[in-house]
């Protein structure tokens, strides 16, 4: 009896595994057909279609929609409910398009802006750690980095049905590491040590470092700062936004100890003193807030960034 039960269990596992594989391949094929169809459209038509799909999804996603509206009102209380609702739909549509463009990165030629100091870092070939955010075209930052450097690396949350096919990254010379991998951070450390340019989204909630964001305490992922400190690489901040004509613009800024010290008004610092992780993250989030206020309709408002937690 035990042998038969074990045999049945093994057979069931194999069957489920085959079904799962078939399902993943079917979804992957469906997405590829959808992308192929979208690419036949002009970019403006493609953008409007994806934006409308995003807005339609939000209309039926009650929990996501309510969170987005509440986040906007809490962050910017000067907004009325109607203004917050309209902004939530515009932002969701724009972000849907920002995500979708990851599938045709080879067609994007971003305009890149930075000062001379930052340009030297990007062209040096010695690597850097880059704090970025979910605004505009999500993968335009590592795409822009690849225009300067041989090793542009980013951390992504690749769905299972796409994990085996990441051509949309590799064909534009971006190395994408699956954040669900157990050794993801150690691989980032290795690549940073080998002079790669690491772009990490760090405007999500994570139970790591306390920050103040839109006047409210929350916690944020500090991996990009820890990585920079551990590998002694320059720390940059970058973001990508769409212009009215659909052109993507990517902005790079250097975060140096001197600049951070000048901005820190709450406690005394000197050029010789090293900034703590908390201080650097505070400055990153202060800058994020400024960018979001400038481009509120391009940032993803629906994520639960202000979770309650015990200090």
Kindly describe this structure.
The chain is an alpha/beta fold and 311 residues long. The radius of gyration is 21 Å and the shape is globular. The chain has helices at residues 2-38, 43-60, 62-75, 81-100, 116-124, 140-148, 167-170, 184-193, 223-231, 257-263, 277-294; strands at residues 111-113, 128-132, 152-156, 174-178, 197-201, 209-213, 216-220, 235-242, 248-255. It has a 7-stranded mixed beta sheet, with helices on both faces. Strands 6-7 form a two-stranded antiparallel ribbon. It has 2 domains: 2-101, no CATH class; 109-298, no CATH class.
> What is the mean pLDDT?
86
Q: Which structural class do you get from the secondary structure elements?
A: alpha/beta
Number of strands: 9
The strand line-up of the biggest sheet is 1-9-8-2-5-3-4
From the alpha carbons, calculate the radius of gyration and give it in angstroms: 21 Å
Q: Kindly estimate the percentage of residues that lie in beta strands according to DSSP.
A: 15-25%
The number of helical segments is 11
Report the principal-axis shape. globular
- Integer tally of domains: 2
- Helix-strand string: HHHHEHEHEHEHEEEHEEHH
Q: Segments where pLDDT lies below 50 for 5+ residues? A: 257-272
**Major pleated sheet:** 7 strands, mixed
Report the span from N to C terminus.
Answer: 54 Å
**Assembly context of the chains:** single chain
Q: How helix-rich are the residues, as a percent range? A: 40-55%
């Amino acid at each position: 009896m035990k042998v038969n039960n074990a045999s049945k269990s093994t057979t069931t596992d194999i069957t489920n595994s085959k079904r799962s594989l078939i399902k993943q391949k079917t979804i992957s094929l469906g997405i590829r057909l959808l992308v192929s169809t979208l690419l036949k459209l002009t970019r403006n038509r493609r953008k409007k279609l994806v934006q409308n799909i995003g807005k339609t999804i939000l209309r039926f996603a009650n929990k996501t929609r309510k969170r987005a509206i509440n986040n906007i009102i809490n962050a910017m209380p000067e907004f009325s409910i109607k203004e917050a609702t309209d902004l939530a739909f515009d932002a969701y549509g724009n972000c849907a398009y920002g995500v979708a463009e990851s599938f045709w990165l080879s067609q994007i030629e971003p305009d890149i802006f930075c000062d001379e100091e930052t340009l030297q870092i990007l062209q040096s070939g010695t690597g850097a750690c880059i704090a970025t955010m979910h605004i505009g075209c999500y993968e335009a930052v590592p795409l822009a980095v690849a225009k300067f450097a041989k090793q542009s690396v980013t951390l992504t949350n690749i769905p299972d049905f796409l994990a085996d096919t990441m051509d949309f990254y590799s064909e534009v010379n971006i190395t994408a590491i699956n954040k669900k991998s157990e050794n993801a951070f150690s691989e980032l450390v290795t690549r940073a040590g080998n002079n790669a340019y690491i772009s990490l989204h760090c405007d999500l909630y994570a139970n790591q470092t306390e920050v103040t964001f839109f006047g409210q305490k929350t916690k944020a992922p500090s991996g990009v700062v820890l990585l920079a400190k551990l590998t002694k690489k320059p720390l940059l901040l970058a973001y990508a936004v769409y212009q009215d004509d659909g052109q993507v613009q990517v902005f790079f800024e250097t975060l140096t100890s001197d600049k951070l010290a000048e901005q820190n008004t709450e406690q005394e610092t000197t050029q010789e003193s090293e900034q703590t992780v908390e201080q650097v993250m505070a400055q990153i989030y202060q800058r994020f807030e400024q960018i979001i206020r400038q481009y509120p309709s391009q940032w993803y408002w629906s994520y639960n960034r202000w979770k309650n937690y015990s200090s």
